[in-house]
Amino acid sequence: MSFRSATAVGYVEDVSPGSGALPPRAWYPASDAPSLSLNGGWRFRLSPTADEEDDSFAAPGYDAGGWAQVSVPGHWVLQGHGAPIYTNHLYPFPVDPPRVPTENPTGDHLRFFDLPDGWDPADGGIVLRFDGVESCARVWVNGTDVGEFKGSRLPHEFAVGHLLRPAGNVLAVRVHQWSAGSYLEDQDQWWLPGIFRDVTLLHRPAGSVRDFFVHASYDHVGGVGTLRVDSDVTGRVTVPELGVDVATGEPVTVPVEAWTAETPRLYDGVLATGGERVPLRIGFRTVELADGLIKINGRAVLFKGVNRHEWHPRKGRALDLETMRADVLLMKRHNINAVRTSHYPPHPAFLDLCDEYGLWVIDECDLETHGFTEQAWRDNPVDDDRWTPALLDRAARMVERDKNHPSVVIWSLGNEAGTGRGLTAMAEWIHGRDASRLVHYEGDIDCRDTDVYSRMYADHAEVERIGRRLDGGTHRRRQLPFILCEYGHAMGNGPGGLADYQRIFESYDRLQGGFIWEWIDHGIEDERYGYAYGGDFGEELHDGNFVCDGLVFPDREPSPGLVEYKKVIEPVRIDGDGADGTVRVTNRYDFADLCALDFEWSYQVGGESVASGSLAVPPLAAGESAEVKLPEPPVAVGSGETQWTVRAVLAADTGWGPRGHVVAWGRLPVSGRQMPPFATSAGPVVSGDGSVSLGPAVFDARSGALRSIGSVAVTGLRLDVWRATTDNDDGAAWQSDIRYGTLWRKFGLHRMRHRLDAVEPSADALTVRTRVAPAAWEFGLATEYRWTTDGSRLRLTVSVTPDGDWTVPLPRLGVRFGLAAADRVQWFGGGPGEAYPDTRAASLVGRWQSTVDEMQTPYLRPQENGARADVRWAELGGLRIEGDPEFWFTARRWTTEQLDAAAHRSDLTPGTASDSGSAAGVWVNLDHGQHGIGSQSCGPGVLPQYQLHAGPAEFSFVFSDIG
């Protein structure tokens, strides 16, 4: 005997895409046909299983007075009902497609509404539209079941006019967290059930628009565009600016300005049928595969892109228009020209913004089955014919929704879904439906179904081999252009090596750029931690802070990685010889000339600007260069290191940036640094109280430890080689190459012992000799500290000689010490933000001011951060420090050990400046060298030229008490 549930839930595990929905069609934001938003407060009930409750809640008159309320759009797990789950690729349930667990959180939603005055359901009908529901939904209107659907990031519409009445309507939606569709949605992100995009009721008058396709090509030879609008309902198309007035389906060719991401020219038009007028925003452009390259309007393009998940730290994937606009404006202001919508179609309004402001878009289907890699892709749905209708449905809903956007230049089949017949069917359907765009899929390694050779995280050397066409592969693949659909994994401090990638991209025509992974950290605002990540909600399986790998923090504050990327990809190259007063300006745009930019120069002495002015630069066409003469440098404006800085700025306000916004800059050194003289004047004096005096400094006679410099107490000064490992130092566990963060801990570089060998006063110096080495290993660093004075200042010369077999590079090499207090910081060197050997392109040498707190970079998982590069001198806490040679400078209110132990920002509390813990303080690092950053959290490690190998080294610092 068996007992069956009274609630029908078979659709949850059905591989079909659903039932009852209307065919997909083009999305448009508004028309003269009225609509009613059903966003807002909905009644909500959460059940632990799919069949816990029956369907009676859907009937009119059901009493939901005791239910909770949630906001739609929204995710119930971010509104106090259940908890989010983060996994990178592991399914958080047993893999047994299409079955899902009995424990299947199910949210029943109710929305009560009246029809607006004048709506007559008999006049054409009414359509109910859902723009996004995760992961499976069943819908009732006034107690009648109208259908169910899967495809979380895709639109679904239902004809409901015959079920509505003027007042007292009830919309009931049952949403299941897990369904057969979940097997197709294993993207690297939080699992967040709910109705997270708009719900809208659309009045469809008789003769209103159904589907339409705007074909707007551009002939770059003749400078003309051809427009044809195909429509399911006949009508007329007008574009007043172009004098166009034609019937639907009829082509017309007229002179136009082309649409590009650099010059996003849109023409306003109208599609008018018997029952509706739909505004059109038309961009003329042609995408083709020609001469083995992706060409748009006849020119090859270089993608300077980013992968973008939708994210808000409180609302998850429920984004409003202003949040989307903020993303686009940030991208434009940081020279990004392309977006891959990883790994699903975005909210459709985002594509409107890409059309308006100008971004190339790879529009990616809502498909990923990455978790099947754990079983060698066995039972992968994309190679199982039973699932093909669902795959084709997802492809069609993406293409039909987004086909009228000029910004969309490439369709992507999905991400990390292996290979199979279903993907081939998707590619064939897309090619057949829309021949005006290319098709992408990184997993198609032989490019059987796709138009571009795409990889993720290939290292620099391999990318260069591909650029030289030495990569092998099938004949078809060797004829195709190459992009890195993911590279530069922006997890924590990093990514490093971006400038090296860009140099390679720009050296080979076949290489058409790439897309940084990724745009934003998916941290969830949390009162416990500031921002929470995987594991913070008690998940059974999780991937920790791997979800925090963006160029912007969750609050959309740019990280140093975004600032670095902006510099690396800047569309104007400014270089030259500052000594002979010549600057070379190169236009690196693909289409635009330099008419929209002004050029400014400034002349710095000792890091301070002493003169500035405008620079006349010709309006160079894309790809052109010019040598421009700088003015004569100012005379007698002081002494010190001199340089020119030339900036390209917006000449006028634009839609995305204000007049004066810096697009690109270049630094041209003129004269180098000259160290001030330091003449040793006196030797150490041993006192009877166990101290040694040397100029302004006092030392401990027994240990040689520095106690103070003038009025400034100093504690714990010693050689330091450890840094709180970055996500890129630690690397990813699945990688086969060397992960230095792991080896550093194995070899004990985080617990170095300092053996005192000698304290040697002499006639002109105090010399302290030590050996710095980890327990359990025979290698170490013989370290000599030589202290001298010129009477008012104190000089430290550190000599380091490695001994033993050093098989790993050092994290850092320098000295650290504690100060009792410090707040304001000034320095002459690289700034304003942090930099490391392979992330220093954006570091501009000058004089900078900050505070100790502002010098920290608040990565969601605390790690090494905040170093300033090429520092000549720094002032803080009453000390001035001059370096020979230039040094890396870091100051923070906690020790490296505290930083290393912290899991969240909230774990960091101010440390102390003495071993006794008697005074709150600041810890300072002055580093002769730093190991690079790389992107090994999911990519290549640090390039050899940026590795800090143990070798003989000598470096000096001069300390002054400045009060």
Short description:
The protein is mostly beta strands and 963 residues long. It has a 16-stranded antiparallel sheet that branches. Strands 30-29-28-27-26-33-32-31 form an eight-stranded parallel sheet. It has a seven-stranded antiparallel sheet with strand order 1-10-9-12-6-3-4, with no helix packed on it. Helix 1 runs parallel beside helix 2, helix 3 (388-402) runs parallel beside helix 4 and helix 5 (460-467) runs parallel beside helix 7.
- Low-pLDDT segments: 1-5, 914-920
| Residues in β-strands, percent | 35-45%
Mean pLDDT: 96
Helix content: 10-25%
Number of strands: 58
Calculate the terminal CA-CA distance, rounded to whole Å. 89 Å
Number of helices: 11
**What gyration radius follows from the Cα positions, in whole Å?**
32 Å
Judged by helices, strands and strand pairing, the structural class is mainly beta
Question: How does this model look, in words?
Answer:
It is a single chain. Helix content is 10%, strand content 36%. β29, α4 (421-433) and β30 form a beta-alpha-beta unit. The longest helix is centred in the middle third of the chain and has 15 residues, at 388-402. It is globular, with a radius of gyration of 32 Å. It is mostly beta strands and 963 residues long.
Topology (elements, then pairings):
Elements: E1 18-19, E2 35-37, E3 40-49, E4 68-72, E5 85-87, E6 103-113, E7 126-130, E8 133-134, E9 136-141, E10 144-150, E11 156-159, E12 169-176, E13 189-191, E14 194-195, E15 199-203, E16 212-219, E17 224-231, E18 235-239, E19 244-247, E20 252-255, E21 267-273, E22 277-282, E23 287-290, E24 293-296, E25 299-300, E26 303-307, H1 321-333, E27 338-340, H2 348-357, E28 360-364, H3 388-402, E29 408-412, H4 421-433, E30 438-440, E31 453-456, H5 460-467, H6 475-478, E32 482-487, H7 498-505, E33 511-516, E34 524-526, E35 530-532, H8 560-568, E36 572-577, E37 582-587, E38 597-605, E39 608-615, E40 625-629, E41 642-650, E42 662-671, E43 685-686, E44 691-694, E45 697-700, E46 706-709, E47 712-720, H9 727-730, H10 740-746, E48 752-761, E49 766-774, E50 780-789, E51 794-803, E52 812-819, E53 824-831, E54 844-851, E55 868-876, E56 879-892, H11 896-901, E57 922-930, E58 953-961
Parallel strand pairs: 26-27, 26-33, 27-28, 28-29, 29-30, 31-32, 32-33
Antiparallel strand pairs: 1-10, 2-15, 3-4, 3-6, 5-13, 6-12, 7-11, 7-15, 8-14, 9-10, 9-12, 16-17, 17-20, 18-19, 18-21, 21-22, 23-24, 24-25, 34-35, 36-37, 37-40, 38-39, 38-41, 41-42, 43-44, 44-45, 45-46, 46-47, 47-52, 48-49, 49-50, 50-51, 51-58, 52-57, 53-54, 53-55, 55-56, 56-57, 56-58
Helix pairs in contact: 1-2, 3-4, 5-7
